[in-house]
Amino acid sequence: MAVAVAAVAVLVATTGFIPRSTSASASTPLAFSTYAGVANLSGMATVSQLVGGTISFGSDYFDMTSWKGIQADTWLIDKMEALGKPMVWGVPMLPAKRGVSLARGATGGYDLHFRALAKNLVSAGMGNSTLRLGWEFNSPGFPWYAAGQASNFVAYWQHIVTTMRAVRGANFTFEWNPARGGQGAADRQMGNFANYYPGDSYVDIVGLDVYDSAYFSYPGATMQFQNVQALPWGLNWIAAFGVTHHKPVSLPELGMGGGPSAPGSGPITGSGQLSGGDDPVFISDALAWAKANSVASFVYWDYGSSSIENGRNPLTAAALRQALAG
Fold first, then answer.
1. pLDDT tens for residues 159-191?
2. How many CB atoms lie within 10 A of CB 141?
3. Scanning 40, 79, 190, 249, which has its CA 20 to 30 A from the CA of 90?
4. Could you tell me the residue range of the domain that residue 69 belongs to?
């Protein structure tokens, strides 16, 4: 219990949003934010008005095209500083360029870039940011895709955390954050996600990115959410993992899926990605689950097919409004 209380204290002190205890009632409000595009403060404000929820913190991502974008994206930092809220940053572990590797990071070869990032955040008054290092490390599309490299990923993560914590004025929260399972071959290549966990001393919060998407066969909204719960690396797994490691749990990306969808979120088969479309059932079930499982916070992905701005996905917007009002 003392370890759990300590983890909660760290999160409150460093992020400004309060994780819910395991004894919290389902009516306790979730800390809420949205991602509406890079530095899109006006989009965040619009979503906040549409759903009647107060933005508790900001969420954005550093540029992964170069080391400069990762360590010194001062334009983005300056823009988000205007929000006046604690920040949750997606921090790339590697840029999308040739010649970089998790193996070299595991030796400390890239520590200087993360020292520079820490100094830039501290100097901007954001030394209390939450950092989602190498988010969705189980997704093949990212340069830091870690399948088969658990030891390198863990050692590299530990180097980054140690380096950034050592910067004067740093008080960061570090979030370990896979995407939910169900990615077929990518899951098989990863194996046990827990093997990629850097250890309790290097992680403050655990998260899972969740979207209403499936491939080749979408079973309908209700069954889809049940599937997402029960997957080997799904929602129930991350909730249990948080309890085991005495860490608060978040949903740092929650959104609709893309591709063809069936009216009323019914079953559909086809090629590629499928979804429930404008799917209030999925979002309502997800946020009811979050409240019942004492989830600390969630970020609604207001981008692309998941956006609720300009009249898009009105049923989803209504479900968000009802859940936040609850």
1. 999 999 999 999 999 999 999 988 788 888 999
2. 8
3. 190
4. 2-325
| CB neighbours of residue 148 within 10 Å | 11
Which residues lie across from 34 on neighbouring strands? 300
CB neighbour list of residue 229: distance below 8 Å, 6 or more residues apart = 235, 236, 289
65, 72 contact by CB (below 8 A): no
Mean per-residue pLDDT for 242-269? 92
Q: Parallel, antiparallel, or unpaired: how do β-strands 205-207 and 173-176 relate? A: parallel
The confidence score (pLDDT) of residue 6 equals 34
260: pLDDT strictly greater than 50: yes
Q: What angle do CA 16, 60, 133 make, to 5 degrees?
A: 80
Question: 200 CB contacts (<8 Å, ≥6 apart)?
Answer: 3, 245, 246, 247
Q: Which residue has the tokens 């999308």?
A: 96
CB atoms within 10 A of CB 123: 13
Number of domains in the chain: 1
In single-letter form, the type of residue at position 153 comes to F
Domain at 117, CATH number: 3.20.20.80
33, 34, 38, 43: CA torsion to nearest 10 = -110
